[in-house]
Amino acid sequence: MDKNEKLILDESCKTKPDIDYPTKWGFKIIGKDKDKLLACIKEVMGEKEHLCSLGNVSKTGKFTTYNASCIVESEEERNKIFKFFEDNNDINMVI
User: Fold this and answer.
1) pTM for the model
2) Does residue 6 fall inside a structural domain?
3) Residue 47 falls within a domain, yes or no?
């Protein structure tokens, strides 16, 4: 695959993407309470340098999105951060 080609990950894709680490990785965090989302991001990232910005708010105002990104050193670290977010009761979805 050419470096400029995009890999579409869906059920028909049998190829795992080749990611070179360390790399900047973004997480989209969705939940109902923006203060709790922000607190979770700070807890998960700890002292790790990261960026965080408020994303969209749903039309009804029920859900809020935060975008968080950091440099991950390995797939293991990336998956660990994702799992922390996923397991937090204040987060409804992580993308």
Assistant:
1) 0.81
2) no
3) yes
CATH code assigned at 69 = 3.30.70.260
What total number of domains does the chain contain?
1
Based on its alpha-carbon atoms, the radius of gyration of the chain, rounded to whole angstroms, reads 15
Tens-digit pLDDT profile for residues 32-78:
999 999 999 999 999 999 999 999 999 999 999 999 999 999 999 99
Please check whether residue 10 lies inside any domain of the structure. Answer: no
Give the 3-state DSSP-derived string for the chain, with helices as H, strands as E and coil as C.
CCCCCCCCCCCCCCCCCCCCCCEEEEEEEEECCHHHHHHHHHHHHCCCCEEEEEEEECCCCCCEEEEEEEEECCHHHHHHHHHHHHHCCCCCEEC
